[in-house]
Task: inverse folding
């Protein structure tokens, strides 16, 4: 393993081997911009093709038109892309500069100086003050806090908003502030990597800082770039990684540009057109050469008898250049343009602006709006995405008494308030545990307002609730906890903290009551871990019933317990705890075992229920999107029962008998395999029935399934429209996205926290909710929205319109290019297959750049159906999902249309302008105006809604065509001098135009009408209904109303514990954890809820599998 | 057409929010454009609209077609194909040899006027199978050289007729080189008919494309002569035959104006044409025709537009009729929600 040696506080230049702290996110420099950017642009096939064409055109022998007609647009397109890149890079430069020039305190040559952040070198001592941003990765050597601790906020790094505690290196403990300046030593650490959870290094201090001992360093001793220092007056650290080599810098990869399904389809069609073009070129090239030999007698052409070696190539190459317009050079620019407008529409949309926080939606990725309309799977996070992530203490059950059941809010329950003021001992104990058994740090601001900094939202909710019930946790001073209860100050000395881990699922603290000197163990945790530890003789039935009842309402539950410890018991235990804490091997397991030993015989005080409310409109949104044929998967780190409850309450899964939940469980490979097979079988059988079947899997089983039964699991993923995955890690979330993507499904991942970032980046579309867990997800995402319910509008309105518009725009671009190209090909048949061009260079260039691209750009305003209709009939999204509007067969339609129109224009032109009128300039203008007229009508007939802008663009463009040509015709030097004036004076010109339009559009209209009326698609029907019939009362919406009514009823029924339906019962059972296995080092820490039996959720039939063994404890 | 005005969905995005004070500048600005709520007209293809527009097109097209056809039929046209007839019997086997020989190529043709022809009567020559649009041919010219005196050496595009012995040919290029050189003279009852060869070319060409101080130079000096020679003392803008010829034709069959006869020709008149059959179309089996034609508003004789209009008009009537019949025989309610498959079997989301 590569090592780097960092000499602390060493001004010797020889040791300065590593880069300084200059951050650079720039892709280019001023010098390499042009070559690098050009190289990047030319690595795309389309651009290479256009460049080749443009280069061929420089050869006068073969070029049919002026090279400017290709070079002009090509240079324009390249300039646009390059400018955009340059602008982005300039902005990156500015933000880098801002970070680089921030002033920091650094020790240089033994003196503390204020220097720019970019001048920090590896090994420098950096001083930070409270609320400073960490400029580079540091190893802590000193802080203001007595225990050598400091608090940092790592939001920008991992998205977690809670405060984390970091400690100084043990070797530096106790070094005086003045001496810190002079500290010398060496740190041996790994080469820079991007793992923000690992740092294995050693530090050795040089004399006079005594010991030559090697002091080990871990990630706990570091503070990383971009974190913020909080609640700590100052810290001092040694820079170990700087600049782009920090952990953050290393992980800052450029995300792969996402390609939409539509782009892929357009590329495919472009490829097909390219092949077609090659075929045309070969056929015409051969024909041209043959024709040339036969007609060599045409004396007026003067073919030389002996040509150069490349003579056979000349005609094919000429045709290649003639046909190069088949692939529209403008399509990329037009698409980029409209795509950024789609993104703007999302940004501008007021209906997607979160009124509470006043955050508008934002499309960070402007290139993938069409994909929104083609989403097939939505993978959603639960907490903060479906729910508000605003934890509120709602109910509790203290020693058998339920509080908050009547009013729905325990804090307003008079019974509880009375109990508090009366000083009921149970309630006071309960509140004490609530307020201090946690890792919350109370913070008193200068004006006396108390605020809490908590690692978990649940703890904060409990502390706040306790504070409202007069049990105010006011101060945490080293190991002294102060509570203010009814104006009397209680002090506890914190002896030990038995930390929360996801295995233990509980946390405890040991405190000594400073007044009475008694020692208490205070615990809180999940019911399945606390209730089994109840002291023998205590009835836990009430509590488990309370848990059950609360869970049904979708509340998160925490059991609260305590126990008084004897002094000697504690002392004994304390020793073994210290020993376990200092072991090097299997430390975590040892500690948890020791903790387990103390957490027995607890007096259960009660159950607290915390509400994480569903966001507004979540059930409606899910229901609408499911109707639109989108499948939902819920991926959550939360536990199974909560996940299922939330899933039920937000329409994610239907209640029995319509829905059925299949559980995949197991801890060994074998169990998972059997479980998986079973579920698969059920899934296959029920697939034909109109039933909502969902599978539920937890992280551990998922790990095994992905490792050993990937194929079966993939099949399951395809079969299942709904899935709930609980207890999954961020990387598993990303893996699940990967599985769906590998089956060619379009996936959308939506989440709000740092743990969703990987999933969001992996998915075709990542949506971030700019919520409470920070902006991490929103920053990584392609779209950020304020609330989950905006997803409906994002997909159904913006996604669908974008898809429809791009489908039209791209196919139309090919249509118009093919149209003019076909005319050129036809013309070559009457020009001796020699490769002459009917149109002049100016017309060809203007045709692509002006005449045909402007009308189609306003198709970004087109709406086939009103937003309301789409919302009422979300099923219509199917047309987008299945790619019905852009696929080879629709493309064939446009291809046929362009062929037909080319025939119409060409035949009519050569007949109407035959004999004495067959002057080439005039004829080319007649054919060109024919094309322009036709394309105006084509755009018009394909437009569903005409706004004033569309009329302006379509008809204004037609007028513009004449104006431009009149101007060109007025220039004597131009090739087409006077042509347009001559034509416009001829009645036969206008008659010809009229004929072309009717011949070209008549069949199109007739066919469209026929299809529209007699073979109408669902879109057509809705259009007709919308425009003829006023409000559409569809059976679908009636059904929706019924459903929602039903849901309200069922919601009511949940809140009445007595009348709850049997449907929910099986879902309530949580995993009994009667036995805890000890984990071997190789086992997954996620291992939990060891229900040995496979279970399926569902009505009746599955109850056999249930084991309700925890009651026996 | 049915237009339902602004397709606004609800008031949520609209006025309700405008009232609230804007504290956050990030808030999107409200306008009909940004909210995609511009008032729009949303036409749909209803049977009424489609049938009546087809009817309308039919009603408009048939009169226009009739008028065009009438105009075209009123054009009197005399066409005489002479390229074979003007070959002496001895050369019928090898026409190319005849045309390349120095023998006398004068040929006499008689044309009988079938209808009265009002002046001006246009005299055209028509070539068939002559590719003036051939790429090698159509590009072989130099517009600058033709236009200005001091650009006579701009002959790069004119290959292979650019220079002779290092001196620029003026006018250069294949087009000029192959200038048509058959000549016609007409007489009626031994009385010569004057052919007016002035103003047969476009005025814009004479004024702006061909210089008045540019004179032919080194033209047709090679051993292999293409077509006509030019009088080196006449400036190019007076060489109207050349100007006409240089307006290349887009099709292999074309007519070019030779001159105008400005007297009326009566029905039954016999016109004697004395022509010099010089131009070689024999090597590529081209036809040569002499055409005398009057004009109408539609131009020369061209039945195509009239026939096309009548056909299209008729077809539109037919379509309108059949759509009407289908509509009455098999009426179909537009926008019937029962046609929506998800309404028929509720619950199925993505069927069909």
Result:
């Amino acid at each position: 393993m590569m090592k780097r040696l960092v000499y602390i506080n060493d001004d010797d230049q020889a040791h300065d081997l590593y880069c300084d702290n200059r951050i650079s996110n720039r892709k280019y420099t001023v010098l390499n911009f042009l070559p690098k950017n050009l190289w990047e642009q030319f690595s795309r096939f389309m651009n290479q093709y256009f460049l080749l064409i443009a280069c061929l055109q420089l050869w006068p022998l073969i070029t049919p038109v002026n090279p400017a007609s290709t070079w002009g647009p090509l240079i324009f397109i390249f300039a646009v892309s390059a400018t955009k890149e340059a602008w982005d890079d300039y902005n990156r430069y500015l933000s880098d500069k801002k970070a680089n020039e921030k002033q920091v305190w650094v020790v240089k040559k033994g003196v503390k100086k204020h220097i720019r952040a970019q001048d920090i070198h590896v090994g420098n001592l950096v001083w930070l003050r409270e609320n400073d941003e960490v400029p580079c990765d540091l190893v802590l050597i000193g802080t203001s806090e007595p225990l050598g601790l400091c608090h940092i906020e790592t939001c920008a790094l991992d998205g977690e908003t809670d405060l984390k505690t970091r400690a100084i290196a043990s070797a530096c403990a106790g070094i005086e502030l003045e001496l810190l300046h002079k500290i010398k030593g060496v740190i041996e650490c790994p080469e820079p990597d991007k793992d923000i959870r690992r740092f294995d290094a050693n530090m050795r201090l040089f004399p006079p800082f005594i010991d030559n001992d090697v002091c080990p360093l871990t990630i706990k001793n570091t503070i990383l770039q971009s974190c913020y220092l909080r609640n700590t007056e100052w810290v001092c650290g040694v820079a170990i990684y700087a600049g782009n080599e920090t952990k953050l810098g290393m992980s800052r990869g450029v995300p792969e540009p996402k390609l939409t399904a539509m782009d892929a389809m357009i590329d495919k069609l472009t490829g097909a057109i390219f092949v077609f073009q090659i075929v045309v070129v070969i056929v015409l090239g051969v024909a041209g050469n043959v024709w040339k030999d036969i007609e060599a007698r045409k004396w007026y052409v003067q073919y030389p008898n002996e040509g150069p070696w490349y003579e056979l190539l000349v005609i094919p190459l000429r045709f290649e250049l003639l046909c190069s317009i088949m692939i529209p050079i403008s399509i990329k620019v037009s698409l980029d343009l409209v795509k950024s407008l789609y993104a703007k529409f999302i940004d501008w949309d007021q209906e997607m602006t979160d009124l509470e926080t006043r955050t508008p939606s934002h499309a960070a990725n402007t290139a993938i709006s069409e994909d929104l309309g083609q989403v097939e799977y939505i993978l959603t996070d639960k907490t903060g995405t479906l729910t508000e992530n605003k934890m509120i203490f709602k109910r509790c059950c203290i020693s058998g008494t339920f509080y908050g059941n009547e009013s729905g809010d325990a804090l307003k329950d008079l019974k509880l308030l009375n109990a508090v003021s009366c000083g009921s001992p149970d309630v006071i104990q309960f509140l004490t545990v609530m307020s201090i058994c946690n890792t919350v740090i109370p913070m008193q601001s200068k004006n006396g307002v108390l605020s809490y900094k908590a690692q978990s939202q649940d703890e904060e909710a409990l502390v706040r609730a306790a504070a409202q019930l007069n049990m105010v946790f006011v101060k945490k001073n080293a190991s002294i906890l102060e509570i203010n209860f009814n104006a009397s100050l209680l002090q506890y000395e914190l002896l030990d903290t038995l930390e929360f881990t996801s295995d233990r699922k509980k946390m405890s603290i040991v405190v000594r009551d400073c007044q009475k000197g008694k020692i208490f163990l205070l615990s809180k945790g999940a019911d399945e871990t606390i209730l089994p530890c109840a002291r023998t003789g205590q009835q836990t039935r009430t509590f488990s019933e309370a848990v059950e009842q609360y869970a049904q309402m979708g509340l998160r539950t925490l059991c609260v317990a305590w126990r008084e410890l004897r002094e000697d018991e504690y002392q004994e235990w304390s020793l073994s705890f210290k020993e376990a804490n200092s072991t090097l091997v299997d430390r975590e397991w040892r500690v948890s075992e020791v903790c387990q030993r103390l957490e027995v015989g607890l007096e259960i005080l009660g159950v607290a229920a915390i509400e994480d409310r569903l966001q507004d409109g979540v059930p409606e949104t899910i229901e609408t999107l499911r109707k639109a044929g989108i499948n939902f998967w819920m991926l959550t780190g939360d536990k199974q029962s909560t996940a299922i409850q939330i899933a039920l309450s937000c329409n994610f899964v239907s209640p029995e008998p319509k829905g059925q939940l299949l559980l995949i469980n197991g801890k060994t490979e074998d169990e998972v395999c059997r479980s998986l097979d079973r579920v698969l079988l059920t899934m296959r059988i029920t697939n034909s029935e109109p039933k909502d079947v969902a599978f539920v899997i937890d992280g551990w089983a998922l790990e095994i399934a992905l490792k050993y039964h990937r194929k079966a699991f993939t099949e399951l993923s395809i079969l299942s429209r709904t899935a709930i995955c609980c207890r999954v890690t961020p990387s598993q979330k990303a893996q699940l996205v990967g599985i769906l993507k590998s089956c060619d499904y379009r996936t959308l991942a939506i989440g709000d926290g740092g743990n969703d970032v990987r999933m969001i980046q992996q998915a075709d579309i990542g949506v971030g909710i700019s919520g409470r867990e920070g902006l991490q997800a929103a920053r990584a995402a392609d779209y950020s929205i304020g609330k989950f319910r905006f997803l409906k509008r994002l997909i159904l309105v913006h996604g669908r319109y974008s898809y429809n518009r791009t489908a039209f725009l791209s196919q139309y671009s090919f249509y118009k290019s093919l149209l003019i190209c076909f005319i050129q090909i036809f013309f070559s048949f009457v020009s001796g297959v020699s490769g002459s061009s009917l149109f002049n260079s100016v017309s060809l260039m203007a045709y692509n750049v002006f005449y045909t691209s402007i009308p189609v750009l306003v198709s970004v305003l087109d709406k086939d159906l009103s937003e309301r209709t789409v919302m009422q009939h979300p099923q219509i999204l199917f047309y987008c999902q299945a790619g019905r509007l852009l696929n080879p067969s629709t493309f064939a339609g446009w291809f046929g249309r362009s062929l037909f129109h080319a025939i119409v224009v060409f035949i009519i032109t050569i007949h109407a302008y035959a004999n004495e009128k067959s002057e080439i300039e005039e004829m080319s203008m007649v054919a060109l105006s024919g094309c322009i007229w036709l394309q105006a009508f084509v755009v018009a007939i394909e437009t569903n809604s005409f706004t004033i802008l569309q009329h302006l663009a379509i008809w204004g463009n037609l007028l513009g065509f004449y104006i431009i040509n009149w101007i060109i015709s007025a220039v004597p030097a131009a090739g087409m001098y006077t042509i347009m004036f001559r034509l416009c004076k001829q009645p036969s010109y206008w008659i010809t135009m009229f004929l072309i339009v009717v011949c070209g559009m008549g069949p199109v209209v007739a066919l469209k009408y026929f299809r529209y009326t007699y073979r109408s698609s669902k879109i057509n029907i809705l259009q007709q209904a919308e425009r003829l019939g006023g409000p559409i009362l569809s059976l679908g919406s009636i059904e929706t109303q019924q459903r929602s009514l039903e849901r309200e009823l069922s919601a009511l029924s949940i809140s009445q514990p007595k009348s709850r339906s049997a449907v929910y019962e099986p879902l309530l059972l949580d995993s009994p954890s009667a036995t805890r296995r000890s984990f071997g080092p190789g086992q997954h820490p996620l291992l939990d809820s060891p229900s040995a039996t496979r279970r399926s959720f569902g009505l009746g039939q599955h109850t056999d599998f249930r084991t309700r063994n925890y009651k026996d404890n | 057409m049915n237009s339902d005005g602004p397709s606004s969905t609800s008031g949520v995005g609209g006025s309700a929010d405008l009232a609230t004070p804007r504290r956050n500048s990030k808030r999107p600005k409200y306008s009909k454009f940004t909210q995609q709520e511009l008032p729009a007209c949303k036409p749909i293809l209803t049977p009424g609209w489609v049938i009546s527009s087809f009817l309308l097109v039919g009603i408009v097209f048939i009169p226009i077609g009739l008028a065009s056809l009438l105009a075209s039929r009123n054009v009197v046209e005399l066409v005489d194909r002479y390229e074979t007839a003007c070959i002496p019997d001895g050369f019928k086997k090898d026409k190319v040899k005849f045309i390349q020989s120095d023998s006398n190529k004068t040929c006499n043709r008689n044309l009988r006027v079938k209808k009265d022809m009002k002046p001006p009567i246009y005299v055209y020559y028509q070539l068939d199978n002559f590719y003036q649009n051939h790429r090698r041919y159509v590009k072989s010219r130099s517009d600058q050289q033709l236009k200005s005196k001091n650009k006579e050496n701009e002959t790069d595009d004119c290959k292979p007729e650019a220079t002779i012995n290092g001196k620029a040919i003026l006018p250069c290029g294949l087009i000029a080189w192959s200038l048509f050189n058959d000549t016609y003279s007409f007489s009626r009852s031994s009385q010569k008919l004057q052919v007016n060869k002035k103003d047969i070319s476009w005025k814009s060409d004479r004024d702006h494309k061909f210089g008045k101080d540019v004179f032919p130079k080194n033209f047709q000096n090679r051993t292999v002569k293409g077509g006509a020679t030019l009088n080196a003392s006449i400036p190019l803008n007076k060489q109207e035959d050349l100007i006409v010829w240089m307006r290349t034709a887009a099709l292999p069959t074309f007519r070019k104006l030779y001159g105008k006869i400005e007297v009326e020709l009566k029905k039954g008149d016999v016109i004697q044409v004395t022509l010099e059959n010089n131009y070689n179309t024999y090597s590529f089996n081209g036809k040569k025709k002499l055409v005398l034609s009057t004009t109408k508003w539609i131009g020369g004789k061209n039945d195509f537009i009239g026939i096309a209009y009548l056909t299209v008009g008729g077809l539109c009537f037919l379509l309108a009729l059949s759509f009407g019949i289908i509509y009455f025989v098999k009426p179909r309610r537009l926008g019937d929600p029962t046609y929506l498959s998800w309404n028929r079997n509720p619950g199925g989301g993505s069927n069909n």
Notes: Residues 322 and 350 of chain B are 35 Å apart (CA to CA). Chain B touches chain A through 106 residues (CB under 8 Å). The first strand of chain B starts at residue 77 and ends at 81.
